[in-house]
Design brief:
alpha/beta; TIM Barrel; 8 strands; globular; binds 2-phosphoglycolic acid
């Protein structure tokens, strides 16, 4: 399809969505994020180079989530270069301390400069058998200490094909937020079929799901749900980020593969910032 026709259709869809959703004052208040999830990638030298090259933009909050061994050096790199970059971990334990070999507590993460933590990523749900109850314990522990959880939810391909997406997402959300009253967290919608596959959801598909997620959050937390940033993740890259960030209920992106190259990631920051 010709580029001009594609853009015309995109604008039509966007206008229709904006008219149906309306503009809520909280939309302007909600923070936009571009968050990197490096997963199990990068060594010390590579991370030093990355932080040197990263260019921030005041319109969006940039957060980097390196693997555990790079958290403290990353904190030092960020401070050294006086950059406005938030630091996040990729996992945390739900206990305060104790005999949990190989685990890291909330206070340990804060001790090395973390302000954010990814909780319930689908890879951990798969490889570390994390269930909604464990996710909830971790979320509560993080919120209690003032660490901001980035709660990941998302359906599998099979669940999508069986039209179970909404059911799965609302179960994951109500499980993760059981007895949680604070709205000091971020949600990342990451369809499992889109993670690392190069097959992202379309911005319009994601917008619909994000509006649904916000309606579930409203049921759980009332009007405060309007202040919660909901990010899209799953093969987000420099080609699709502007489309995602232009949607009224998509408050930024959680980026895996495309966050490893500082040039690509910088491009994503600037493109998302333009949509704010
Ligand atoms: P991806 O990963 O961008 O490589 O698809 C996203 C994520 O898992 O957070």
């Amino acid at each position: 399809m010709e580029e001009s026709i594609k853009n015309y259709i995109k604008n039509l869809v966007r206008t229709a969505i904006e008219q149906s959703v309306g503009t809520h004052p909280s939309m302007a208040r909600r923070k936009k994020y571009v968050i990197a999830n490096w997963k199990m990638n990068k060594n010390l030298a590579e991370s030093a180079e990355f932080f040197q090259k990263i260019i921030c933009n005041d319109a969006v909050s940039v957060v980097i989530c390196p693997p555990t061994q790079l958290l403290y050096p990353s904190h030092l790199f960020i401070k050294q270069q006086s950059k406005e970059i938030g630091l996040g971990a990729q996992n945390v334990h739900w206990a305060e301390k104790g005999a949990y070999t190989g685990e890291t507590s909330v206070s340990m993460l804060q001790d090395v400069g973390c302000e954010y933590v990814i909780i319930g990523h689908s890879e951990r749900r798969q490889y570390a058998a994390e269930d909604d109850e464990t996710v909830c314990r971790k979320v509560k522990q993080a919120i209690k200490a003032g660490l901001i959880p980035i709660i990941c939810i998302g359906e599998s391909l099979k669940q999508k094909q069986l039209s179970q997406t909404e059911h799965v997402l609302s179960a994951q959300l109500s499980g993760a937020l059981k007895d949680v009253t604070s709205s000091r967290f971020i949600v990342a919608y990451e369809p499992i079929w889109a993670i690392g596959t190069g097959q992202s959801a379309t911005a319009e598909q994601a917008q619909q799901i994000h509006a649904f997620i916000r309606s579930v959050l409203t049921q759980l937390l009332g009007q405060n749900a309007e202040d919660i940033s909901i990010l899209y993740g799953g093969s987000a890259n420099e080609k699709n980020v502007a489309d995602f960030c232009s949607m009224p209920d998509i408050d930024g992106v959680l980026v895996g593969g495309a966050s490893l190259d500082p040039r690509t990631f910088n491009e994503m920051i600037q493109l998302c910032a333009k949509e704010v």
